[in-house]
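Exercise 7b. Backbone tokens:
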């Protein structure tokens, strides 16, 4: 199995991640235009496809990717107001329509999810010194648009996207994710008793 995150995971992707997620980018760069943000996300995705995803799949490996085009549709399409059609057209042009076979969308209630993300990123800043809070500094209206779009994507692409709309603990959510993945892969549960 191969795992990666987007943005990031390649040398180019890690540089793009630094620009896109660092809170200082707004001041240092005079803001990032929504179209530039979208283009950078897709530049990262193209590099990941070339260097990691397609080679791993050619070797018969399972690829686990934290975020993909659905995130761009939610964040840049809905959050930044670029629209789903622009994101989907960019996906077709850059990724040649390549989609995951399965997308697990963790979609707990928005308020709790956003609070956890902000706390997680604050801990990350304290631990590593890297500030990846640029998106978390957006207001509630931005995140309401993002959240609504994720729901729309799950409804529209129900054969590919499985939404887990639960606020349960980590262990319970992990169990639900495993049930979905093992069912899709045809893995039989084993009794370890």
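Sequence design result:
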């Amino acid at each position: 199995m191969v795992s990666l995150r987007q943005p990031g995971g390649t040398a180019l992707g890690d540089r793009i991640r630094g620009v896109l997620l660092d809170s200082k980018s707004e001041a240092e760069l005079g803001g990032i235009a929504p179209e530039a943000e979208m283009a950078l996300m897709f530049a990262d995705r193209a590099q990941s496809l070339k260097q990691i995803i397609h080679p791993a799949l050619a070797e018969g490996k399972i690829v686990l990717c934290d975020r993909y085009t659905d995130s761009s549709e939610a964040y840049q399409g809905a959050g930044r107001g670029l629209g789903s059609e622009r994101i989907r057209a960019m996906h077709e042009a850059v990724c040649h329509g390549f989609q995951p076979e399965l997308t697990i969308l963790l979609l707990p209630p928005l308020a709790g999810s956003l609070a956890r993300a902000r706390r997680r990123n604050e801990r990350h800043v304290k631990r590593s010194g890297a500030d990846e809070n640029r998106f978390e500094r957006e207001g509630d209206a931005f995140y309401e648009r993002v959240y609504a779009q994720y729901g729309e994507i799950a409804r529209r692409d129900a054969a590919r996207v499985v939404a887990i709309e639960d606020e349960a603990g980590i262990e319970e959510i992990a169990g639900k994710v495993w049930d979905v993945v093992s069912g899709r892969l045809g893995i039989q549960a084993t009794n370890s008793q």
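Instructor comment: The first helix runs from residue 11 to 21. The chain has eight helices and four strands.
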